[in-house]
Amino acid sequence: MTDEELVLQETAMAAERSGDLEAALDGWRALSSINANRPDYLCKLGRVAQKLGRWADAERAFLEAMRVDARFSFAMVALGSLFLKRTDGDRLANARRAKEWLEQAVAIAPNQPSLSFLGSAHARLGEKEAAKAAFRKVIELDDTYAEAYFNLGLLLSADGQAIEAERLLRKAAQLDPGSHRAHGALGVLLQELGKYSEAGPS
Asked: Which phi-psi region, left, alpha or beta, contains residue 11 (left: φ > 0; alpha: ψ -120 to 50)?
């Protein structure tokens, strides 16, 4: 890495940490121009563009990272995540695109983020059993991954499997005590189960 790259990288990271996403975007764009064969630079550029809601720019950056390294699973996961989050286009079409990218990522490197996002894509498409299987696989890989417990708990709660859903949502809240979503979902479920004394704020 050249001195120029090092300075630009430090500047881009500092800008991102401070919340100056425009400056961070400029920094990662400059780095990607200097060294076009670094898929990690392109993914960082795409990540910042995504944070700014510049969906097409983010997609271009992630696809360019894939051009540099067709088996770069991080870029596939980033594309899957992008299509789950983007607000332009058709929501279901975006979910299908997300699923395609995430299935490729899982085939190369099945890990917690790729499987968790894949579960979310399945859930959005109404493929409940596939979603549950993906979230269960995440928990097998990492029994501290709170998001998987939360998402699986929501799916089971919606399917009327309240006992297991309660256990999963409790685990999600325990693993991530600051998660308002986990505590909120658990509170709603406990009220539905008639456990009113447990449903309130602790």
From this structure: alpha
